[in-house]
Amino acid sequence: MMSIYPLVFSNNSKYRISRHIIFWMALIGYYTTFMTLSWIDKYPFSVSFPASFFEEALAMPLDILFCYSVVYFLIPRFLFKGRYILMVLLWVVFSLICIGCYRLYSDDVVPIIRSAYHLPYSVHSRSFLWTFFFIFTELTMEASLAAAIKLGKMWYIKQQELNILKSEKQKIEPAENGKIQPVFLVNALDKIERLAIQKPSVIPEMTKKIKNLLLYVIYDNNQPQVSLEKELRLLEEFVELEKTGNDDISVNMKMIGNTDGEHIAPFIILPLIENSFRQLSSLNLKNKFINLESRVAEGVFSLKIAWSKPTDTSTLTNNDSTFLQNIGKRLNLLYPQSHELKIQIKTDQFAINLRMDLHKAIN
After folding, report:
1. Sign of the CA dihedral 127, 128, 134, 137?
2. Greater model confidence, 357 or 319
């Protein structure tokens, strides 16, 4: 039996198609019941019900076209970008097109259905203006209902994500003024203080990179999606920042694929990389290394991270697995059934493999 959560939130095609079918069948059922009740006093149920069902079912593609135009075109391209006036104008234009199609449907198709069941067909007795507002109200109700479901689902996911982030930001510790700050920024500032005496020439470049990281934490982290190209560029800056002053760590980084136009949820890649440096810095090893490889192909993003570990250990340093569990929870929320997060513990290294379909994110 299909459970509720994946039916509502999963991006798996089986669940997506199922929930859309349920929604539209419910609307057909609602309109069919309403029309059947209007006929039932004069015509038997065996006649009024099938006639009402076919009349509503055959008209439903127009409702579907209008609703999806609102939910998947107007809302993301205009509402989310603050282009409200243009959105309203296009909403009215789409409504006029659909209303025109409804008039054609009422004139050419409805008479055939009703004559097949020996029901009377009355010619339009209302003005176009009255018809416009009547059908416009129905279309707006349907589109608003679909939009409310879409936006409500996005709100719920964002709230769950924020709850996870509150417990995740590892990265988060009390500062002297009682506020909280990301730990990797605190560590970076400590490093600047230490290197200011040893290698003062590297301080300006480090300060620039820390500024970019700070802007990322303050602004980009609050966005549902960020540019993958920008995210990977920030990753490179973070790696360079971590390498500065850590001459005992060998870093091999490879980035493959075209990132143009691709987007990803923030605060997933960077924390994984920061975690690997944090784990490695606490180890007493002679030869420390981190291997990073990212790949983008046809909307699928892959990230492989491997770092050295003592051969006599088999778990995360200090048993710190909460961080990875929280990353997994966020992936389940934002990329349900469209990602893989695998952890491998080998003799001399610890590895994380992440694979996610960027085009199936809930946003």
Report:
1. negative
2. 357
